[in-house]
Amino acid sequence: MEEIFYRVTVQGEGIYAVVDRDCPKDDLRREGKPDGSWLKKVGKDFPGANSYWTNAGLEKYKQSGLFDWHQSMVQGKVTIEELAHKPKDILYEDEYQIIVGGV
After folding, report:
1. Phi, psi values for residue 3, rounded to 5°
2. Cβ neighbours of residue 80 closer than 8 Å, sequence gap 6 or more
3. pTM for the complete prediction?
4. Engineered SS bond to 96: which of 1, 45, 57, 103, CB 3.0-4.6 Å?
5. CB burial class (10 A; 0-12, 13-18, 19+) of residue 14?
6. Contacts of 96 (CB under 8 A, 6+ apart)
7. Residue 78, class by beta-carbon neighbours within 10 Å (0-12 exposed, 13-18 middle, 19+ buried)?
8. pLDDT tens-digit readout, 31-42
Protein backbone atom coordinates (compact mmCIF):
# COMPACT_ATOMS: atom_id res chain seq x y z
CA MET A 1 0.00 0.00 0.00
CA GLU A 2 1.34 3.41 -0.96
CA GLU A 3 1.86 6.15 1.56
CA ILE A 4 -0.65 8.99 1.69
CA PHE A 5 0.65 12.56 1.57
CA TYR A 6 -1.13 15.49 3.21
CA ARG A 7 -1.41 19.15 2.23
CA VAL A 8 -2.79 21.57 4.81
CA THR A 9 -4.58 24.44 3.11
CA VAL A 10 -6.90 27.37 3.70
CA GLN A 11 -9.17 27.94 0.70
CA GLY A 12 -6.68 26.09 -1.52
CA GLU A 13 -3.59 28.00 -0.37
CA GLY A 14 -0.85 26.35 1.69
CA ILE A 15 -1.15 27.01 5.42
CA TYR A 16 2.38 28.40 5.85
CA ALA A 17 1.69 31.10 3.22
CA VAL A 18 -1.64 31.92 4.85
CA VAL A 19 -0.07 32.17 8.31
CA ASP A 20 2.57 34.55 6.91
CA ARG A 21 -0.23 36.66 5.42
CA ASP A 22 -2.58 36.61 8.43
CA CYS A 23 0.12 36.78 11.12
CA PRO A 24 3.13 38.71 9.75
CA LYS A 25 6.62 38.06 11.14
CA ASP A 26 6.44 41.16 13.37
CA ASP A 27 3.07 40.19 14.92
CA LEU A 28 3.28 39.81 18.71
CA ARG A 29 1.19 36.61 18.53
CA ARG A 30 4.27 34.88 17.14
CA GLU A 31 5.89 35.04 20.58
CA GLY A 32 3.81 32.00 21.58
CA LYS A 33 4.59 30.01 18.45
CA PRO A 34 5.67 26.40 19.09
CA ASP A 35 9.16 25.37 18.01
CA GLY A 36 9.34 24.31 14.37
CA SER A 37 13.11 23.87 14.11
CA TRP A 38 12.66 20.15 13.45
CA LEU A 39 11.37 20.97 9.94
CA LYS A 40 13.84 21.96 7.21
CA LYS A 41 12.62 25.24 5.70
CA VAL A 42 13.23 24.47 2.04
CA GLY A 43 9.90 25.50 0.51
CA LYS A 44 11.18 28.99 -0.28
CA ASP A 45 13.82 27.37 -2.52
CA PHE A 46 11.03 26.12 -4.81
CA PRO A 47 8.70 29.04 -5.61
CA GLY A 48 5.32 27.93 -6.93
CA ALA A 49 5.78 24.34 -5.72
CA ASN A 50 3.45 22.61 -3.27
CA SER A 51 4.53 20.88 -0.09
CA TYR A 52 2.96 17.79 1.42
CA TRP A 53 3.45 16.11 4.76
CA THR A 54 4.40 12.46 4.97
CA ASN A 55 2.58 10.35 7.57
CA ALA A 56 5.45 10.94 10.02
CA GLY A 57 5.52 14.64 9.18
CA LEU A 58 1.81 15.18 9.77
CA GLU A 59 2.04 13.39 13.10
CA LYS A 60 5.06 15.49 14.17
CA TYR A 61 3.33 18.68 12.93
CA LYS A 62 0.33 17.95 15.13
CA GLN A 63 2.33 16.76 18.18
CA SER A 64 4.62 19.81 18.05
CA GLY A 65 1.66 22.14 18.52
CA LEU A 66 2.31 23.91 15.21
CA PHE A 67 -0.88 22.62 13.60
CA ASP A 68 -3.09 24.01 16.38
CA TRP A 69 -1.15 27.27 16.47
CA HIS A 70 -1.41 27.68 12.68
CA GLN A 71 -5.16 27.05 12.82
CA SER A 72 -5.53 29.74 15.48
CA MET A 73 -3.62 32.31 13.38
CA VAL A 74 -5.46 32.04 10.06
CA GLN A 75 -8.75 33.46 8.93
CA GLY A 76 -10.61 30.72 7.08
CA LYS A 77 -11.30 27.02 7.28
CA VAL A 78 -8.27 24.75 7.48
CA THR A 79 -8.49 21.64 5.29
CA ILE A 80 -6.23 18.61 5.13
CA GLU A 81 -6.13 17.34 1.56
CA GLU A 82 -4.97 13.78 0.91
CA LEU A 83 -2.86 12.68 -2.01
CA ALA A 84 -3.07 8.90 -2.36
CA HIS A 85 -0.12 8.47 -4.71
CA LYS A 86 3.50 9.55 -4.69
CA PRO A 87 3.99 12.24 -7.34
CA LYS A 88 6.62 11.78 -10.03
CA ASP A 89 7.92 15.34 -9.97
CA ILE A 90 9.35 15.53 -6.45
CA LEU A 91 11.77 18.44 -6.12
CA TYR A 92 12.72 17.73 -2.50
CA GLU A 93 12.02 14.93 -0.04
CA ASP A 94 12.85 14.14 3.58
CA GLU A 95 11.27 12.12 6.36
CA TYR A 96 8.63 14.78 7.08
CA GLN A 97 7.76 16.36 3.74
CA ILE A 98 7.86 16.26 -0.02
CA ILE A 99 7.86 19.28 -2.30
CA VAL A 100 6.44 18.84 -5.77
CA GLY A 101 6.16 21.01 -8.86
CA GLY A 102 2.70 19.66 -9.73
CA VAL A 103 0.46 16.75 -8.92
Report:
1. -70, 150
2. 6, 7, 8, 9, 58
3. 0.90
4. 57
5. middle
6. 38, 39, 40, 53, 54, 56, 57, 60, 61
7. middle
8. 989 999 999 999
